[in-house]
Every structure is written in C-alpha cells, then in structure tokens.
Design brief:
The complex is a heterodimer. Chain A is mostly helical. Chain A has helices spanning about 5-30, 40-50, 55-85, 90-100, 110-115, 120-145, 150-160, 165-200, 205-215, 220-245. Chain B has helices at about 60-70, 105-115, 120-135, 150-165, 180-200, 210-215, 250-270, 275-285, 290, and strands spanning about 20-30, 30-45, 50-55, 75-80, 85, 90-95, 170-175, 200-205, 220, 230-235. Classes of the chains: A mainly alpha, B alpha/beta.
C-alpha cells in the first residue's frame, strides 16, 4: 500500500484535482470567452451515460477498425518498401523522388481527392489513415537501414552470411528500432487524420460523434467525445509500446 | 615459439599465410584523389603473430579491409595461401575497433552465428559453443545481450565468435582500443595466451608500442600516407610471454628502435598538410636527441 501512495502519485493526483477545481471555477465565475465551457459535472454525467450506451461503443469500434485497417496496410506496404529503398540504390533512385514530392502534403489535404476518387466513403477514410502512417514509416525505415553500421554487415559476410542471411538476420532486426519509432509516430498522426476525416466526411466513429455533438449544440458531450478520442489514442499507443518491448528484448529502455 | 599442437579441440591446426603484393589503394572523392596505400607489400607468416604499427591515417584499417575482402585494391594483389582474395570469407575473420557484435542477439547466438549460416544445426554446435564460451570466460553470460556486457567482455565475445569458426587467419584491428588500462592489460595477457595455445596466424593492428612488442613475433611499421611498409623488426623474445619481460634489455632495445621509426612517421602525420606545423616538428625531430623519452 505504501508503495502506491508515494509522493509522485500523490502529486499527480493533486494536480488533477486542482485542474478540475480551476475548471469549475472558470465556468462558475463566467470568465470571458471560457464561460460557455460545460461544468465538470455535466461532462461527467454525460460521460457515464455514454459508457452505458451501445452506440457509444459502436463508435469506438468504428474508429478503431478504421485506424487498424489503414495503419496495418501502411506498415505492410511501407516497411518492405522502405527496406527495398534502403538496400538497393537503384530502386531508391527510381522511387525516392516521387516519394519525396508527395510526402510534404499533409494527410488532411488528401481528404477532397480521397473522397472524390474512392468508390466508398469507408475506403477513402482507410486511405487517409494509410497516408498518415505510410510516409512516416517509410522514412523511418530508410533511416533505420542507413543507421546499421557497415561493420555489422562486414562481420556477417566474413562469417559466411549470404545476402538473404544478411537481409533477415542483420537488416531487419537492425532496422527494428526505427520501425518502432515509425509506428509510434505514425499512430499519433493516424488518429489526427482519422478524427479530421470523420468530422468532415465520415459516418460513425468518435470524430463524427464529437462533431455531431457540436452541431446538436450538446457542449458537454463535445468534451466527452474529446476525452474518448484521447483515451482511444492512448490505448493504441500503449499497444504499440507493448509490442515494441516484446519485439526488441535487447533494448531495455527507450 | 608458439605451441604447434594447434590447440587440440579448439582448432584443426590449418592456418594460413597472407601475401600482400604491391597493393595500391586510391580513394576518389569528387575530383580529389587520395592515395592511402602505395605499392604496399607485406607478408603475414603462418602460425605467427604479426603486429602492424603506424601513425593514425597511414592506412592500417584500409589494409585490414583489403585483406578481409571488404574492399578491393586499386592495383596489386592479395593472396591467402596463394589463392587471391575476391571477397569476405570465414577463412579470415576480423575483430574490429568498435564492437561488431549483433546487438539483437544474445552472446550465445552471436557466437554460433557463423556456424549457423554455414548450415550446422544447433544440436551439433552446442558442445563446441560451450567449450569456446568457457574458454573466454563468458559461459555464465551466454544469454545476455551485448549491451549488458562490459567493453572487455564484448571483445572476448567477438574473439569467441571468430574462434569457433577456426579461421585460417585472425585479423584484429586495434581491438583493445578504448578499454581502461587494467582491462587492456588483462586482455593482452589473455589474448597472447590464447595465441600461444592455438598457434593460429594472427594479424594484429595497434598504436600502443608496449602492447605491440609484448604480443608480436614480428613488428611491421608502416609509413604515413601513402602507406607502405617502412621496416620490419623480429621480436625474438621468448614465449610464453610475460609482463615481466617489459624490463628485459632486449625489450628495451626493440622499443627504442620502434620509437625512432614511429616518431618520424608520427611527425609527418602530425604536420600533414601544414607547412608551419611541419617546420615546427622538423625542428623537434632534428633535436630529437634531446627530447627522446627516458624510461
């Protein structure tokens, strides 16, 4: 028991309490520009109701499935592409210029084109999530491959490794840390993209839910939506972190 | 004289010799040409510990890379037992300056890596791997990752990884660089004892004069750029080597000789490209009778 209630946990707890108290105060006293914020209590009540309702969890499921489909597609295509570009100079020469031209375009800027060109709304959302994670993972994998010290490849060759051994036993594990970084950063970006896409064009999902709270002038529920999105994003990031720890047992901390 | 029984279980005793024939290596960067090695010829005797010394930048590491097959000479040839070098291979294994252990594999996996990629299965390897690990004192650490080992232990792991493959030639490029003085000395003793037990051809690069003489059967001194062999000194100290030999008159003799030769080349390295520095060092070299080290 003593371990749990140590100073750090106590401090964290107190800071959250202070935050809520300030929030209540700001609304109560009608501070200009912030007076329309909902009371903490309203948000809490709406939140509890939401957690009890089926549609709320339905929206969770919709957003999560969009994230996973787009994100996993980005990894499945982006990681091999990044490895190929890192290993073959010729291949990189052909693909990198186009890649670099498209990369600076923010994923959100793809929304209109995605809506126009994909046959269904869902597909365009998957595509947008994909774009969010894709460029990040490729650039990180490229970085990872170039970070592998040449002496490791030399040592492997001397020990008798053939090109396929070098690929699977040196290049892939060697770029894992960068792959993980790419996935971590990518996951954050995909949530950004998803929420924007849902607000603008989606049906269902946490972003849509939050936006509809706005159009229905249900202000406390906007905050519920925001908190939900935050929690969902946090859970996904934690999953990535857990996976990375499992995948890289040789890295004790990162 | 190194033991000639080949170390029994550790090695089959099939050791190689290296012949470097008038090798030149030029690097071209944009429009600048840098000649690192020029007509360098060198012979690494079978079953002997040959030590290469020279100032920084004289091309020692480049020579290692050429012998190991990582790079190709611009001209000239390198032969291992009369077979020309075409690329890297398990007959010449290198221990690099910076650790080249695979960080994502345990010590055990690292050590058996060479054997595994050459097709041996895990069961066959177990006994041999355990023997080698015990030999280098890392058996208890076989399931640790390289990042969990100290510098000296990493070097020992790399020695094990090389030795298990029983290469014809072992090449070590300043392997003890960066270790603290005590660990370094222990590693030198450990390494020379290993050499004396097995008798494999070893090619060792170092900066440290005492280390070089302590280990070597023959000392080869290289010139500064462009690099070639300046002199060779036979180190006829008795084996097995012992640190008390550092006090022997013969050791001192060899040391004096080596220092003279190295000082000249080091001065050139120091002054490289700068006329002022060269003139300054020139004056020092001219007066070197006065500033010679006394020990």
């Amino acid at each position: 028991m003593k371990k749990f209630f140590n100073v750090r946990v106590l401090r964290g707890f107190i800071s959250i309490v202070i935050f809520v108290v300030l929030w209540q105060f700001v609304v109560l006293v009608k501070i200009p520009y912030l007076e329309n914020l909902p009371y903490p209590k309203e948000v809490a009540v709406d939140g509890i109701n939401a957690v009890g309702s089926k549609t709320y969890w339905f929206d969770w499921g919709i957003s999560l499935s969009r994230i996973f489909i787009g994100f996993i597609a980005a990894q499945l295509i982006g990681i091999p592409l990044g490895l190929a570009m890192g290993i073959s100079r010729v291949f990189k020469g052909f693909t990198f210029p186009v890649f670099e031209m498209l990369r600076p375009i923010p994923p959100i800027a793809w929304i209109p084109l995605a809506i126009l060109f994909w046959p269904t709304r869902e597909l365009s959302i998957y595509f947008l999530v994909f774009i969010g994670a894709f460029f990040i993972i490729v650039i990180n994998v490229l970085q990872g491959v170039s970070n592998i010290s040449v002496s490791l490849k030399w040592a492997a060759s001397s020990l008798g490794a053939r090109p396929k051994d070098i690929f699977w036993k040196i290049m892939v594990p060697g770029s894992l840390p960068s792959i993980v970084t790419g996935m971590t950063v990518g996951m954050g970006v995909t949530w950004n993209v998803l929420i924007a896409a849902e607000m603008i064009a989606g049906q269902g999902g946490l972003g849509r839910m939050t936006w509809e709270a706005y159009t229905n002038h249900n202000i406390p529920f906007i905050v519920v939506g925001m908190v939900s999105i935050g929690v969902a994003g946090y859970l996904c990031s934690t999953l990535i972190r857990w996976l990375s720890e499992k995948a890289m047992p040789w890295k004790k901390r990162f | 004289m190194a033991s000639s029984n080949g170390g029994g279980v550790l090695s089959s005793g099939n050791f190689g010799e290296v012949r470097v024939e008038t090798v030149t290596k030029v690097y071209e960067k944009e429009d600048k040409c840098q000649t690192v090695l020029q007509d360098c010829s060198l012979y690494v005797n079978r079953g002997k510990l040959t030590v290469l010394m020279g100032p920084s930048g004289c091309g020692k590491t480049v020579l290692v890379n050429l012998i190991a097959g990582y790079e190709k000479p611009t001209s000239g040839h390198i032969y291992i037992d009369d077979v020309p070098v075409t690329g890297p291979g398990p007959d010449r294994l290198v221990v690099f300056q910076e650790t080249a252990l695979f960080p994502w594999m345990t010590v055990y996996s690292n050590v058996i890596f060479g054997c595994r990629v050459q097709g041996l299965n895990k069961g066959e390897l177990k006994e041999r791997a355990e023997l080698i690990l015990r030999k280098v004192g890392l058996y208890e650490f076989r399931d640790k990752y390289p990042s969990q080992l100290s510098g000296g232990m990493q070097r020992r792991a790399e020695l094990a990884r090389a030795m298990i493959n029983d290469p014809k030639i072992m090449i070590l490029d300043e392997p003890f660089r960066g270790l603290d003085a005590m660990t370094r000395q222990l590693m030198q003793e450990f390494y020379v004892a290993l050499f004396e037990e097995v008798g494999r051809t070893n090619f060792f690069i170092t900066h440290e004069i005492d280390e070089a003489i302590f280990l070597a059967d023959r000392l080869v001194i290289m010139t500064f750029q462009p690099g070639k062999v300046k002199t060779e000194i036979e180190v006829d100290l008795p084996r097995p080597r012992d640190f008390r030999m550092l006090a022997l008159p013969r050791f001192m003799e060899i040391r004096e000789q080596a220092i003279e030769l190295l000082y000249e080349e080091a001065a050139k390295a120091f002054a490289a490209g700068s006329k002022t520095a060269y003139d300054l060092v020139g004056a020092l070299v001219a007066r070197k009778g006065i500033c010679k080290r006394t020990k």
